[in-house]
């Protein structure tokens, strides 16, 4: 199960187009049956929740093994522009928010260097969503196996194109996240569905130079 979960953790991930909160704000994109092809500039993503569902039973994967928490705190997923191409990894740390309004969380990321995840994404016109597939096992993540796939669930996802857009939804009492779903036929557990909730990070200091990190990001 660790192998399957780690695939999912790595399978989600940030276009190098993270938008500064000082730019003109775009509204959040709320979707139902399909995503808009132009909406899948996802930016940097943080894995907020991860659950395994077997029939009516569910399990929080972060409570099953503490190694998952380590990945959650240090590894960030970077999708390519418009969701076409290889997914990369950034490394970083969370730090105390002293600048961004509201309950935002802030992170320092070393984004001058990215690392391969062994994953790629592509638009699926028939399904109207973005699909992520595992292509090979990378050196940094030996637990990633080729031939797996996950997709964004349009009905439970809200995509933003700016920090201010995410802040506005938060102030109104709403939540913003992107849900990825991964189905698997486990030899021991049978039919399993994994659901991961990821949140977008937006850069607000692009060249921070903080303790060796490159940029500061905020997340609601």
UniProtKB/TrEMBL annotation:
<feature type="signal peptide">
    <location>
        <begin position="1"/>
        <end position="18"/>
    </location>
</feature>
<keyword id="KW-0732">Signal</keyword>
<protein>
    <recommendedName>
        <fullName>DKNYY family protein</fullName>
    </recommendedName>
</protein>
């Amino acid at each position: 199960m660790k192998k399957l979960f780690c695939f999912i953790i790595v399978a989600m991930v940030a276009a190098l187009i993270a938008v500064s909160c000082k730019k003109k704000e775009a509204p959040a994109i709320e979707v139902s049956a399909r995503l808009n092809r132009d909406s899948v500039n996802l930016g940097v993503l943080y894995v907020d929740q991860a659950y395994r569902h077997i029939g009516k039973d569910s399990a929080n994967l972060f409570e099953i093994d503490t190694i998952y928490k380590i990945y959650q705190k240090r590894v960030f997923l970077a999708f390519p522009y418009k969701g076409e191409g290889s997914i990369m990894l950034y490394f970083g740390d969370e730090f105390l928010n002293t600048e961004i309004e509201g309950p935002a969380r802030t992170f320092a990321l070393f984004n001058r260097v990215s690392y391969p995840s062994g994953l790629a994404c592509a638009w699926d016109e028939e399904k109207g969503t973005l699909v992520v597939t595992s292509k090979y096992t990378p050196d940094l993540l030996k637990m990633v196996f080729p031939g797996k796939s996950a997709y964004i669930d349009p009905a439970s996802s809200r995509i933003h194109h700016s920090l201010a857009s995410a802040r506005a939804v938060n102030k109104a009492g709403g939540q913003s996240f992107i849900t990825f779903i991964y189905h698997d036929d486990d030899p021991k557990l049978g039919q399993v569905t994994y659901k991961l909730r990821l949140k977008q990070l937006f850069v607000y200091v692009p060249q921070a130079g903080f303790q060796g990190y490159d940029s500061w990001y905020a997340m609601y």
